[in-house]
Amino acid sequence: MATTKPDTFRVARFHVESFMGITSAEVPFDPASNTLEFAGPNGAGKSSLIAAILWALLGRYGAVTEPVKIGAEEALVRCVLVGDAEIEVTKRIGADDKSATLTVKRDGVRLAQPQRVLDELLKAVAFDPIQFAAMKSADRVAELCRMFGGADVVERLDTEFVDLYQTRREVGQARDTAAGHVDSLIVPDGTPDEMVDMAAALDALAGAEAHNREVDARTREVADRMGRVAELDHKIEALQREVASERAALVEATRLAEEIEHVDVEPIRKKVTTAEAVNAAVRIKSDRAAAVQQRDALNAQYRELNDQVTANRQARVDAVQAMGVPVEGFNIDPDKGITISGVPFDALSSGEQLIVGFKIAAGNPKTQLPLVVLRHAAMVDDDNMALIEQLAEEHDVQVIIETVGDPRTAGAVELRAGEIVEPS
Fold it and tell me: 0.70 cut: is pTM over it?
């Protein structure tokens, strides 16, 4: 049994004259049913009837290139909606007119700015689950975003994700290069932190060698003076005063020689010899410390970017959920498009796609006229036709179905040659 929920409207009846392939038609909607089938052969005018409703109600979304039937002077569509008020929509256009005339009455009172009234009051968006299923994935996402909003947030997050992903990829490559550089720098055990001062070491060596030359000179002086003393002993009588002087000098020279010791130059010489190798190791140690610092900084940057990517993806999930699409498991995957519990929409069965479509139509927050239009439903089998009727009742959605051939549902409207065939 069809009902009218608060703040919603239903199409009660509509009248069409000279519109596309229709000569004249008066179509009532059975208040006891949510489903209305337009049946008949190809070219009978079924699509014209559907186009007439959408042309009258949807503004630019229902635009038709040539609405006036060939040979007619004017096309007219009058549609009556019922809800908490009765709204009568009349739209007409002459054969030579570039734009149509729209009149909207609410409970018999004509309203100003009629298209704005329809846009604001009804926000009518006729939804076709079959056409929706046949869309490309990107078009399907765009249609849902038009209905439920959130496109700007999802688009911004996807753009941000591309930048974050690329930056994280570049930082990851730099991090891996830095880590490889760290591993290539082998520091020998015991390498000091500071380089050996070669100039100071050479100065120390030169000073030690000069000191030792002085010690050697004093030692030779002692030996020379001892020889001189021995020589003078033979001349002691003649050289008493000279011997005394020489003895005094000998005592002093001996004292000085005993006070000074040789410096061991080998450690200094070894330090000079090994300084370059030590300094090379110190340079490697310093380079490795810098490389470790760079690697650690890149690791930290990569982790931060990874957190940002994760936050971006979660924000995208939250934005999609905030759209409020009333389908359990609904998501918009960046690569797969619309998915239901992880399954791409295209991988769902035709019945599952119909169920999703009806839930979308019933939960559309932008419309007070929950209307599902199934164009070209000739290929819908009996099981799915029964499912359509069941879903229309469950979700309290009005459904207009276009089929080819004989009527398949109770209360169907049969058309032939642009006119309604009266039931026999």
Answer: no
- Which whole number is the average pLDDT over 400-408? 87
Between CA 338 and CA 323 the distance in angstroms is 13
C-alpha span between 192 and 202 (Å, rounded) = 19
In one-letter notation, the amino acid at residue 323 is M
d(CA 405, CA 295) in angstroms, rounded, equals 73
Top pLDDT among 90 and 230 is at 90
Number of CB atoms found within 10 A of residue 33's CB: 18
Instruction: Rounding to the nearest 10 degrees, give the CA dihedral for residues 321, 326, 331, 336.
Output: -150
Q: Which helix (H) or strand (E) holds 28?
A: strand 22-28
Which superfamily is assigned to 1-127+364-424 in CATH? Answer: P-loop containing nucleotide triphosphate hydrolases (3.40.50.300)
Mean pLDDT across 212-217: 83
Query: How far out from the chain centre does Cα 7 lie?
Result: 38
First to last CA, the chain: 25
Nearest to 405 by CA among 396, 414, 394, 418: 414
Total number of residues shown for the chain: 424
Instruction: Spell out the CATH class of 151-322.
Output: mainly alpha
Rounded Cα–Cα distance for residues 240 and 301 (Å):
94
- Distance, in Å, from the CA atom of 65 to the CA atom of 55, rounded to the nearest integer, reads 10
Strands 101-106 and 109-110: antiparallel
- Domain residue ranges in the chain: 1-127+364-424, 131-149+327-361, 151-322
One-letter amino acid for residue 383 of the chain: D
Neighbours of 401 (CB within 10 A): 27
Tens of pLDDT along 323-381?
888 888 999 888 888 999 999 989 988 888 888 887 887 777 767 777 888 877 777 78
